[in-house]
């Protein structure tokens, strides 16, 4: 029996595995980088071992250090989680060679399926050779052979861009997975991303635990997932399950794994027999595994441990019940090209009664080195409609104080008629709907009033809702794009002069009640350094006067986020002429690469970025002395 498990991972998945281990009476060991020294997964483990450094290549991707940590801590088994070394056959062998139990598939199965190119060849689907791509093949997708999560992926729509995108994808894949191999496949526009969860024991039993739909994605990374995949014809679902089982049996698979497909309309368009494209087999536990657990009433981590101990699964899996939906809460700004955000997560609370898998707690810092996912919020209900409604309501009522998040986008997505309706989902949802989904949430102007009055109450000690109309000079406060004008009134209250039609019912430093159109609404208010959270609204405090430090030379390109400069455009030097939209350099932050482009055509007069340089948000990267030409939005 397994007595002590080291999780070769961090954050949410490490905490998730630890939770099951505690329930089973198994001791736990964490590994951590210097950037994670105070992380939740370190605090929750029974023991922890430091991996010196911060970058993944120095820490979580160092299999030799992880194995040494397991031996030093007295662990007898290693769980890889997802990402990092979870699909690395050499690491799996190193674990078993050290006399430890590997909680995952055999290394031979990992080798057969973890490389997407080899997996396709095994199934008789050789990938398209980059050298053979012609204009007729476009668009194509450049894809990393190892790993996942959207790293090392590029959509190419113009043939002349292929070589550069191959090079960029390879560099990103090498940084993320230690393997720079990439390949090319046809890019299917607006298909459905459907996958099958597998669990296999060493005695020949293979469970196909239904389907999941993961079509709502940004940058090829999943945002909302659900089980079962809605609206699949019975024959298609049966075919997907059968293909997944055959793939697992063909390589002697043991443990948890997922086979992913892209389901697209047939040649005759909607309504015709769909086309199914095999994408890959993930030889590990998936991020979205909780929705399958909720629908089938199982603990996949507990079953992974049982299989690793050599126990047999029952002949048939449990029956499916109801519907489950998961939303990934990210520290990012969807309205600014999904830019990741950093800072202190001051307060994080969710309503009781729903499942939340997270690697953060109130007061934790969100850094630049790793994925920006804060938590997964999972809801199970009798029907899909009930699950969507409950999840949207839960997210809306969650307290998330700190950096900007995608919370409002998630709520809007779950309530969008296209997503909640009966028609099939597809991966183009955000391409079509992002502007509407990222529009400011309604009620922001009243949240700004609440923020202003809470601040005024804290500063003056004036409370209550009674007042008389006494003429005096208006006070003005601005939060984001909302200007609030108010004046104190006799009796301890306030009169709101803008926006109009607002009556103050009560005002205190932490809670304000307003009546608008005959309806009284309550706002819990908490102020931090430069933001105020009023109800579900996050408001940026705009200073009254411009800080001289904020004045920048015209044409300055500032870092949109903290991160690391990973590349500068080949041959770029001061004095070069650049054109609007030309990529100048690339920043890596929180598992994603971000291009910094020339905002307009002109001359590069300064270049402060260099590969490997760490930059903070707002750091000056370059200066382009612009010409009077079209400006490209950043």
How is this structure best described in words?
This protein has 634 residues and is α+β, with helices and mostly antiparallel strands. It has 5 domains: 4-103, Rossmann fold; 113-186, Dna Ligase, domain 1 (2-Layer Sandwich), CATH 3.30.1490; 192-437, D-amino Acid Aminotransferase, Chain A, domain 1 (2-Layer Sandwich); 444-535, no CATH class; 551-626, OB fold (Dihydrolipoamide Acetyltransferase, E2P) (Beta Barrel), CATH 2.40.50. The protein contains 15 helices and 38 strands. Strand 1 (4-7), helix 1 (11-24) and strand 2 form a beta-alpha-beta unit. The protein starts with a strand and ends in an 8-residue tail after the last strand. Mean pLDDT is 90; it is low at 465-470 and 545-551.
Which properties best describe this structure?
alpha+beta, Dna Ligase, domain 1, globular, 5-stranded parallel sheet, 8-stranded antiparallel sheet, 38 strands, D-amino Acid Aminotransferase, Chain A, domain 1, single chain, 25% helix, 634 residues, Rossmann fold, 5 domains, 32% strand
What is the global morphology?
Answer: globular
- CA radius of gyration is 26 Å
**Main sheet specs:** 8 strands, antiparallel
How much helix is in the residues?
A: 10-25%
- Provide the CATH top-level class of the largest domain: Alpha Beta
Mean pLDDT across residues? 90
Specify the CATH architecture of the largest domain.
Answer: 2-Layer Sandwich
Structural class: alpha+beta
Q: Strand sequence of the main sheet, in spatial order?
A: 13-12-9-10-11-14-21-19
- What is the CATH superfamily label of the largest domain? ATP-grasp fold, B domain
Number of individual domains: 5
**Strand percentage, roughly?**
25-35%
Low-confidence stretches: 465-470, 545-551
Q: End-to-end distance, in Å?
A: 55 Å
User: What is the β-strand count?
Assistant: 38
Could you say what the CATH topology of the largest domain is called?
D-amino Acid Aminotransferase, Chain A, domain 1
How many distinct helices? 15
